[in-house]
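Aim 2, interim progress: modelling of the uracil-bound target.
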Amino acid sequence: MSTQYDEQLNTIKTKCLGCEKCSLCKSRTNVVFSAGVPNHKLMLIGEAPGYYEDQKGEPFVGKAGQLLDRILGCVGFSRQRDIYICNTIKCRPPENRDPLPEEKAACYEYLKAQVDIIQPRIILLCGRVAVHSFIDTNLGITKLRGKWFEGPNFSKMMPIFHPSYLLRNDSKEKGSPKWLMWQDIKEVRRVYDQLD
Ligand code: URA
Ligand code: URA
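Predicted structure of the complex, ligand included:
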């Protein structure tokens, strides 16, 4: 699908694919720039590529990504049509360790460009690393998830659990992480449907 954003995003992507601003460029197989479609209503920002993402050059394609697709699908969102997906950093950290401050700093220009070009009205911050890239707080994700925050370009941002965390917490009982995620994604759908 061709969109008004393609040209600007492609310029940034080309730059990002050749990036050597931090040492992750030495160990990566592929730069993982984005998945989904540029939609000015909805963007999701995850943490960092894992093994499968690094192999494929696409965000959220491993187990966590498959769960993410099912969660989005529960309220009728699909990556082919409704959502732009990226990560705080574009290259896989060795052994999937947390991104280092200098890696996040080096990569921020690409993330900022993605946000500024698409100017999404809703931004989902998926997991602790994404949340702390945008919200200056010591509070953990369990305190922040499901709440709306003011984001860049007058967007609304919501922290949500990371699907990897849900994979480690299988209960669907009321109050469990999976149950909370279900409440959160329904709230996202409700607000999305009110956008013009
Ligand atoms: N976890 C993330 O945060 N991002 C991915 O792309 C894959 C797993
Ligand atoms: N810890 C994380 O890093 N992410 C979650 O989503 C939940 C707990």
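The CA atoms of residues 41 and 121 lie 5 Å apart. The chain has one domain: 3-194.
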